[in-house]
Amino acid sequence: MKKSNYLLRMVMLAMFVAMGVVISPILRVEGMCPMAHLINITCAVFMGPGYALLCALLIGIIRMVVMGIPPLALTGAVFGATLSGVFYKLSKGKIFAAVLGEIIGTGLIGSIVSYPVMTYLWGKEGLTWFFYVPSFIMGTLIGGSIAFLLLLRLQAAGVLTKIQNSLKDIEPTDDNQEKMA
Predict the structure, then answer these.
(1) Distance CA 75, CA 72 (A)
(2) What is the pTM of this model?
(3) What DSSP line would sit under 17-35, residue for residue?
(4) Which residue in 14, 32, 109, 170 has the most C-beta neighbors within 10 A?
(5) Buried-exposed string 10-45: b where 16+ CB fall within 10 A, e elsewhere
(6) Tens of pLDDT along 81-139?
């Protein structure tokens, strides 16, 4: 039987969501929210693509409801957060791959998906398919750079692996099976 760290993962997810809601207004202009990308990449590296998607979705919904942010809070986050986690896993733990996933997911896919959402659902006029691409890419580059530096420091200090391991379910061995009983 595996020892589940479900509660620890939920607490970590809640902390990421809270930090994302609080720090997202820093450097924010419409279509550019670099601190959200910092949270997306960090959550993706710590917890994986599923949790990163859920985190981005929760932050976006809270920001839309509480702060009156347009749907860009969702379209500019969910694709990048998910791809960040996927790229990180596929690269077997390369931090640069997580940042690249955020840039492609948000800077390209999210920005292009934002056009129909903002035009047809939100009623903005005068937009083109590539209207949000420059600001989304700039936001991901800023937030991605900060995340990259933070994660490199955590990795160099040996803390990143400890955090990741503490969030995984643990297969019991003979030594820790007695402790679980």
Answers:
(1) 5
(2) 0.87
(3) HHHHHHHTTTT-BTTB-HH
(4) 32
(5) eebbeebbebbbebbeeebeebbbbbbbbbbbbbbb
(6) 999 999 999 999 999 999 999 999 998 998 888 888 888 776 777 777 788 888 889 98
